[in-house]
Amino acid sequence: MTKILPLLLLSLTLLTANAQKCPKPQPMKTVVNDALAFATQQSLAMAHSLADRPNRLPQTTDRFGRLITCNSGWWVSGFFPGVLWYLYENTPTDELRQQAHLISMRVADQQYTTDNHDVGFMIFCPFGNALRLTGDTTYATIIRNASNSLITRFRPATGCILSWDRAEWNKQWQYPVIIDNMMNLEMLMWAAGEFKNDQYAHVAITHANTTLQHHYRPDYSCYHVVSYDTLTGRPELKHTAQGYSHASAWARGQGWGLYGYTMMYRFTRDTTYLNHARHIAAFILNHPRLPSDKIPYWDFDAPNIPDTYRDASAGALICSALIELSGYVDAKTAKQYLSVAETQLRALAAPPYRNAPGNNGNFILKHSVGHMPNNTEVDVPLTYADYYFVEALVRYKKLKGW
């Protein structure tokens, strides 16, 4: 007995030490509320830093952590005002509403843009949320004008909205359509119902169906770019511009598709879209190279995994989509989706993904990848990572009824 007692004491000491090293995880309610409080602190600081820089909007940071801004014409311009509206929804203060409105109006001129397929991102992220939360019909007019602008880029011959003008990007593409464009359909689907305009819905549904047919491989991964022959309407090239290779699964692209088809099911209740979203989710969640924290590498097929960059923007996007998709499936599958989303929220809400207060231009998250092959915006904060993270937090909180 005298020999056993010291061993028992040693075992208890080791168990206590291990418990101290691995503290009990915080409840999800604490994680979510703390993350939203931090997001509010950072975002208001960012808004104040832009007060004397009219018509500028946050984009990313430079290698020294200094804020890089863009004008309203760059595709990411609507995300930061969208963040402010979500934060206002969570904590409806006068300051958040004022800042959300003022910064949203910096993007309002894009309602008339016809040379950019991302007018849906730029307008609906701020003004869709603004209208939903305030009922101010001024915002509705802006959305209607933007919807009219966006459908000018649709061509019946291809069945798609043109993404990039040919001379602007790669002259080998006749009619390039990128998977990101699925996200811009949300504005059209909402506007179709709000303004009783069947043309908006026709364009969005046709685009979604064409993309489903031609962008996806048998394993439900997708290409980034499909270029169509303008005469025959058939695909001529299938490429991946921002991923590792034409045959690879660029992480954020998989997220755009998951979110886009989940959203299309929300509006149409067409089970084709729901089943497709579930297949995309299965590809992502069952992928052998998805890390344990569920924040993907920038490309699922990057050759130097695990010694390469994660993409917090892809993680946040997938997380937000999974939370919504969990509401459309059976209980067992919903539990699986929410378990992954909770893992992602916990990861993004803590270091190393969470920014330090006041650092890196007051962004919320770090460690996103914009365009790896072009060596631009690599391992930096990105405004759309913040947007989908805050959206995911708000969605999860609503789901739980907190």
TrEMBL record:
Gene Ontology BP annotations: polysaccharide catabolic process
Mind telling me which SUPFAM superfamilies this protein's record contains? Six-hairpin glycosidases
Which Gene3D superfamilies has this protein been placed in?
A: 1.50.10.10
Identify a single GO molecular function assigned to this protein.
Answer: chondroitin hydrolase activity
**Alphabetical list of Pfam families matching this protein:** Glyco_hydro_88 (PF07470)
Q: Which PANTHER family match?
A: HYDROLASE, PUTATIVE (AFU_ORTHOLOGUE AFUA_7G05090)-RELATED
What protein family is recorded? Belongs to the glycosyl hydrolase 88 family.
Spell out the protein name for this chain. Glycosyl hydrolase family 88
Q: Which organism is it from?
A: Breznakibacter xylanolyticus
